[in-house]
Amino acid sequence: MPEPPETLSGDPTLELPELEAPPEDPLPLLERWLRLAEERRVREPRALALATADAEGRPSSRILLLKQATPFLVFAGSYESRKGRDLAANPRAAGTLYWRETLQQISIEGPVRRLSEAESDALFAERPQAAQATAVASRQGEPLSAPAELRREAAAVAAEAGPLTRPPHWGGYRLDPDLIEFWHGSPDRLHRRLLYVRTGGTWRHRRLQP
Prior knowledge:
The chain has 210 residues and is of the alpha+beta class. Helix content is 25%, strand content 31%. The protein has a domain at 21-125 and 168-208: Electron Transport, Fmn-binding Protein, Chain A (Pnp Oxidase, Chain A), CATH 2.30.110. It has helices at 26-39, 82-89, 117-126, 129-137, 147-158; strands at 47-53, 59-65, 73-78, 92-99, 104-114, 170-175, 179-184, 192-199, 202-208. Strands 1, 2, 3, 4, 5, 6, 7, 8 and 9 form a nine-stranded antiparallel beta sheet that branches. Helix 4 packs across helix 5 (147-158).
């Protein structure tokens, strides 16, 4: 019989004492896991798989950049995209960070709202000029009939002198977590799971079976 394919890789021996002695507040732990992932040179540690649903409950997901993790999650995008339309109709989302190298996963859920105009301006100003130009020229998720024309338009915008102005259809969002789960995988499938749920401003935690 051929050996079954390896379906889980990474470091199962990672020292994670917090899974045995959980802290009361998960937010510093979330920040710590992110910092350690960066120190361990995890590839794309802030690549967040964000799931949303429309008013009828039809789900969609995509990978985006997590700009900030605590005290709330911050990400950005087009208000007119499918993500933006979903959040306008159903302002709640779930996100997952997965790091193959360390067999770690963090799942987060909570209500979402737009950042202020000033906060969105600040996020836009942090983007490279080319990324700013794409946000100005593109209508994210709309049909594309002339790719070369869009590239020319984005290049022309990027070549403009001085800082670019944030377009009104682009901005930041904040997700206020009310559920966070920390997960560490194991090849024998006896994964370690630690769930936090916030109710009335108070976090409660419990371990979960794999």
